[in-house]
Design brief:
The protein has 179 residues and is α+β, with helices and mostly antiparallel strands. The chain has helices at residues 35-38, 43-46, 61-178, and strands spanning 4-5, 12-15, 18-23, 26-31. A four-stranded antiparallel β-sheet has the order 1-2-3-4, with helices on one face. The longest helix has 118 residues, at 61-178.
Amino acid sequence: MATHNIRGNEGEQRMGNMDHINSGDETAIIPVIDMAATKEDTWEDTARPRLPHTGFGGYQPAAVDAAIGDYERRLGQAKSQANSAWAQHDLVVAQQRELIEENKRLAAHNEQLRDQLEQARHDAANSIEALAKQQQGFVNDCRARGERLITEAQQQCDQLTSQAQQEADKTGVAGRTEA
């Protein structure tokens, strides 16, 4: 099926009874008004009219004027229909462009939201990691303090045990000497 440009606009092509309008990444398909289906006249109707002749080989002026008036009326109707169709086409194209721009804006907004979601996930993962490191540091500090306290308590216990042993030895020596 052959394609051709409509009104010479690049990116707009007619294929069959549908217009394909390419705008960047998007392609929209819009119905085309089939002017042949709405046309009242056929080719035979627009062929050279049979006008009555005058006596000198010319045509009767009233018949020629009537034929010209009929053609002007038909031409006016055709232009009106064509202008209406082009106005509708231009409106659809403008709406399509607006929708493409809106789609681009929404895609950009969607990408921003995805970035925010990824940032939130990253922050959540890092905050959990930071909290885990903080808790591990607290546990390590508690262990070190507990070990210091145990060491100090053991030293005090050893010192008290040594003092008690010394006093017990003195008391044992004194009791033996007294005995």
